[in-house]
Design goal:
Order of helices and strands: EHEEHEHHEEEEEHHH
Helix content: 25-40%
Number of domains: 1
Shape: globular
Largest sheet: 7 strands, mixed
Strand content: 15-25%
CATH architecture: 3-Layer(aba) Sandwich
Number of helices: 7
Strand order of the largest sheet: 3-2-1-4-5-7-6
């Protein structure tokens, strides 16, 4: 089997894409915002408007989507009271179901995903917990969290006070000095701090992508 092609919607700077590439996929990213740090082929287009990218699409074997999470994030709701964010999971699911492809939708644990599998950085020896849900239309197995297994300690800063944690907190502005640990904790070395705050670790999708390739091989 040659390298299968995966469509990466709402691709951002490519955290998910790197994992799928390492698992064996050729990846094409789609985002409505330019992503100069995206490491693979990139199309500037609206993820929910296939007329803007579908006419250029060669056949794909699978699809991944990471719709913006602000509408579902408890952190966002706590810091942006009264602000409305679009809820994009349902229309994204409808689009993916219409393709007939095996798909993955990734989002925060509080998002309205269907029977999601939750992945955590501790499952892969990373310095973040960063729980994320993965909805699939194919069987995805999940390892166990290992919150006590990460030996490294990170210096974090909250309201100017330094404290130590086994896990880095990768969100927002990072409290200044704490951002220096983000690339190592996330397993990402090509993004800006603001891109890291929005990304998922490639280890997650390398795991998902390995199982997805097995699924494609069985179907073939």
């Amino acid at each position: 089997m040659t390298r299968p092609r995966l469509l990466d919607l709402y691709c951002g700077a490519g955290g998910a894409a790197k994992g799928y590439h390492d698992a064996g996929f050729d990846v094409v990213g789609v985002d409505h915002v330019p992503q100069p740090n995206y490491p693979y082929e990139f199309w500037l287009a609206d993820a929910l408007d296939p007329d803007t990218w579908g006419i250029r699409a060669q056949p794909f074997d699978a699809a991944h989507a990471s719709p913006p999470c602000q509408a579902y994030s408890t952190l966002t709701k706590g810091t942006n009271k009264g602000r409305e964010y679009p809820e994009l999971i349902a229309p994204t699911r409808a689009l993916l179901e219409a393709t007939g492809l095996p798909y993955v939708i990734e989002n925060v644990p509080t998002a309205p995903l269907r029977d999601p599998v939750t992945l955590c950085g501790s499952m892969f020896g990373l310095g973040v917990r960063r729980h994320r849900g993965f909805e699939t239309n194919w069987p995805l197995l999940v390892p166990q969290c290992q919150h006590g297994s990460v030996p490294k300690q990170y210096k974090l800063y909250r309201h100017g006070v330094e404290y130590v944690s086994r896990f880095a907190s990768v969100y927002g502005s990072g409290g200044g000095k704490a951002m220096a640990d983000w690339p190592e904790a996330m397993g990402i070395d090509w993004m800006t701090s603001s891109e890291l705050a929005e990304a998922i670790p490639p280890a997650y999708t390398e795991y998902v992508g390995g199982m997805l390739i097995d699924q494609l091989r069985r179907a073939a």
